[in-house]
Structure formats: C-alpha cells, structure tokens
C-alpha cells in the first residue's frame, strides 16, 4: 500500500492565500503578527487539507517542542481539574500540547518531572508548589508558579490569590452576621496559601476584639481529618457560633461534624472554595469563590508570552470574593 503524502505548509499557504511566513506565525501562536481574519483563513485551509505540523521538525529548529508541562499536587482536586481544562483549551488553540503530572505533594517527584520535561525539550512549565517544597532546578525553561505562593528563592512568574485580604473580609462578614465566638479550621502541613488565609482571619478577629475559641490544624486535603478533629472538640464541650475553614474539603468536613451533632443551624460556616453541592443549593455555607478559571487563563497566556520571549509581570494577584 502506497503511503499517503502529508500536506505541506506550502499547500496551506496556497489554499489560504497568505504567505508561508504568515502560516508559520499562526502555527507558532504569534498573534501580534496577523489579524483574526488571517488566522481563520489559515485554520480553514489546514482543516480542509487535514494538515498537521511536523512537531519534531519544529522542535529541532526552535530547540523546544510545542509542549507545556503542568505539575500539580492533586490531579483529582476540583480546582486543579478546572485549571487543567482551562489551560489545555487555551494552549490547544495556539497549537500547543499539554502534559499533566501529579506530584502527590512531593518536591522530589516534581524535580523528576522537570528533568523529564527538559529531556523532552518542552517549551515551558506551569507548577503548583508542593507542601514538601525543596529548591528545584528549572533547566532554564520558561516557568510559572500557580495559586500557591512559592518560596522567595524561586525566580519564576507567579499567579496567586489575595488570600490574606479575602480571609479578613470573611471574618468581617461573620462578625457583621452576629458571630462572636469563632473557630478556625486550617492547615497543619505548612502550605503558605493556607497560612496566609489563617493569618488574615486571626488578624481580623483580634482587630475586632472577637474570641478565637478554637484553632484546629489538619491536612487540608483530607475531609476525614476535619470531621474527626471537630467532632472531638464538640464532644469536649467547646461551643462556638462561627467556623472559618481554609479549604473546601475542610468546609465539608466541618459541616459533616456539625450535622452529626445537630448543630448546623446554630453555627455559621464560611470556607474557601465552592463545593458542587453548594452550587446546586444542596448544602448551605458562605463560600469564597476562588478565581481559578481567571487565573488559569492568565497562566496559559503568560506561559505563551514567556515562551515567545515577551516581558511578563513577576506577580499577578487575583481577587477572590464571597458568595453568600
């Protein structure tokens, strides 16, 4: 059987009515060099011809392949799933592939993924720092730290939330709603993002002269730990009229413990992240909307800018807000 000849970039150029150089710029996502109408012509010609660029040949010329690695601690987390989907959609439109890696909170594993991406000539990497953070060797790849604030020794662009200010705003809402005895449910693993949320909450409690009845620190990714810790506190006779949680899984754990003791109606619960059951109106708490999709769009476009040698802000801070 004779092997079918693959269409060439010259054929795409001829069919679309633009130069080979313009087709190449469209393929490489250099959107500042052509109009949307031109891009549409090229895309239509590529679809008609079933044209697929030779990634290996492109990689040899550019010394990198159009591939971006995304390293995250928990690929099953709802926020991370939304991030993956959003980043993939943006990069796909710019003819980049995405490869996702689950670090399981291991800095050692993240380093191995970075080594692998470098060996495969990946164009860049988006990294969600691990709780088990250690200094990493980035191999000079364009890189972004996402959501969790990296240590100061990490010289990458960073895209984060205003965690401390939002947490303070949540406590203000709780105080204005009548809460005077507040419990805090946070992180025991040293994740900076959770530390900032706890700091913002505690500072606002102190500023308002409220009582911090209880501070519990558990694994923020394990709902079961939150249930056990809060259940024990309730059985020990501790009483509070509000509880602030630094993650959605801790929020669900807190509500489960309160429900088991028939205390849900007497305690206001506020927490980061909107659980899908909250979205459908099946559980009721004051949710903090995390701008993951907006951050992810920025991350995808920022990594493309870095890959193409453009200047980017060192830090982009996104504002979370409350959903009552």
Strand line-up across the major sheet: 2-1-3-4-5-11
Number of alpha- plus pi-helical segments = 12
Q: What's the N-to-C terminus distance? A: 65 Å
SSE succession:
HHHHEHEHEEEHEHEHEHEHEHEE
Sequence stretches where pLDDT stays below 50 over 5 or more residues: none
* SS-derived structural category: alpha/beta
Q: Per DSSP, what share of the residues sits in E-state strands of 2 or more residues?
A: 15-25%
The overall pLDDT, averaged over residues, is: 88
Would you mind describing this structure in some detail?
The protein is of the alpha/beta class and 324 residues long. Helices cover 44% and strands 20% of the residues. The chain has twelve helices and twelve strands. The protein has helices at residues 9-16, 20-27, 36-49, 55-62, 78-93, 107-119, 163-176, 192-207, 223-235, 248-260, 276-279, 292-307, and strands at residues 65-72, 97-102, 122-127, 143-147, 157-161, 181-187, 211-218, 242-245, 268-272, 286-289, 315-318, 321-323. Strands 2-1-3-4-5-11 form a six-stranded parallel beta sheet, sandwiched between helices. α5 packs across α12, α7 (163-176) packs parallel to α8 and α9 (223-235) packs parallel to α10 (248-260). The N and C termini lie far apart (65 Å). The model has no long low-confidence stretch (mean pLDDT 88).
């Amino acid at each position: 059987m004779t092997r079918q000849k693959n269409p060439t970039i010259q054929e795409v150029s001829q069919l679309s009515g633009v130069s080979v150089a313009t087709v190449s710029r469209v393929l490489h996502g250099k959107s500042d060099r052509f109009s949307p109408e031109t891009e549409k012509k090229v895309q239509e010609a590529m679809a008609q011809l079933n044209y697929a660029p030779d990634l290996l040949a492109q990689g040899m010329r550019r010394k990198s392949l159009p591939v971006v690695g995304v390293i995250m601690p928990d690929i099953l987390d709802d926020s991370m799933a939304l991030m993956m989907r959003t980043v993939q959609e943006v990069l796909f439109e710019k003819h980049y592939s995405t490869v996702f890696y689950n670090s399981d909170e291991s800095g050692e594993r993240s380093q191995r993924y970075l080594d692998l991406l470098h060996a495969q000539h990946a164009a860049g990497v988006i990294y969600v720092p691990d709780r088990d953070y250690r200094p990493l060797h980035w191999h000079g790849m364009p890189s972004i730290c996402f959501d969790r604030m990296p240590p100061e020794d990490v010289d990458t662009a960073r895209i984060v939330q205003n965690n401390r200010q939002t947490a303070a705003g949540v406590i203000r809402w709780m105080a204005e709603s009548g809460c005077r005895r507040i419990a805090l449910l946070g992180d025991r693993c040293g994740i900076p993002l959770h530390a900032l949320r706890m700091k913002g909450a505690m500072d606002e409690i102190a500023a308002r002269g409220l009582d911090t009845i209880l501070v519990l620190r558990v694994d923020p990714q394990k709902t079961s730990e939150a249930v056990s810790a809060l259940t024990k506190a309730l059985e020990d006779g501790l009483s509070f009229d509000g509880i602030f949680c630094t993650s959605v899984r801790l929020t669900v754990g807190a509500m489960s413990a309160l429900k088991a003791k028939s205390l849900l109606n007497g305690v206001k619960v506020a927490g980061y992240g909107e659980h899908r059951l909250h979205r459908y109106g099946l559980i009721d708490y004051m949710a903090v909307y995390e701008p993951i999709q907006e951050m992810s769009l920025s991350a995808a476009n920022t990594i493309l800018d870095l890959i193409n040698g453009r200047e980017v802000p060192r830090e982009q801070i996104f504002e979370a807000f409350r959903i009552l």
